[in-house]
Each structure stands twice: as C-alpha cells, then as structure tokens.
User: Fold this.
Amino acid sequence: MTISFAERGSHEEIEEGAVFQPKFDRDGLIGAIVTDADGVVLMFAHMNAEALAATISTGVAHFYSRSRAKLWRKGESSGHEMAVEELRVDCDQDALWLKVRVAGTGAACHTGRKSCFYRAVESGEGGTRLRPVDDSRLFDPKAVYKA
Assistant:
C-alpha cells in the first residue's frame, strides 16, 4: 500500500476538515510525542514522510533519526517495538501524538528506562540541576545494544 499525504489546504480545511495534511518543517520533519496507551509520556522523536507512511501502513512506530540521517523502526535493535494504538494530529497538523503499546520490557528509552523523560529540571541557589524521577532501569542497555 502506497501512502501519500494531501497538499496543505485552507486554514479551515486544516483545522476543521477530515483530510490529513501534515505540515513537515523545512527539513521535511514533523514532531511526534509518544505515550503509552495510559497517557504516560515515553519519548519525543521526529518523522519524515517515509517514517509516517511506514507507521500508518504497518501499525508499528517508525521515526527519522536526525543523528544517523536515516529511517528507524523503534525496537529494531532492542525488540521493544511500539504497536500504534492511535495516531493523532494537532489542530494545525504540525505535531503528532502516538499512543502505543511497547513490546518486551515496556521500556521506550534506549537507556533502559520506561520513559525518556526520567529527570526533572530544578533551579535553586546552586543553579539549574536535574533530579532523577521514575528512573528505574527495566533492562541493561549494554546487554541489549551490543555494538
């Protein structure tokens, strides 16, 4: 199945219409917030048109790695694939929200944690610092990601 995306329409069509018209940035990317089906934020990543089309056609989350400059299927190395239960787009269609079920340990982060958001930013007399929250590891990254 070939998936293509509609050209951007009017303001009214984008915000109120039923046609999916994702707005990719100048680099051809769109941001994607990923949560588990219960709403816990797991990660943020980017998708290009190819990753978005692959996600829609397979039901498995695919992203575009800016650092590696390539498409990647979440879980291809770790086995922690993300089955997409629902894909939403925001009002002006320039951000995505994927509700997923994570296979394996349920960890979404390459550090072995459930979420990539495992530190809170705090400020005080000593400056801005990071405080660990929900930072238990569900798997050992060194054992999973053998280089």
Residues 49-58 form the longest helix (10 residues). The chain has a mean pLDDT of 93. The chain has one domain: 26-144.
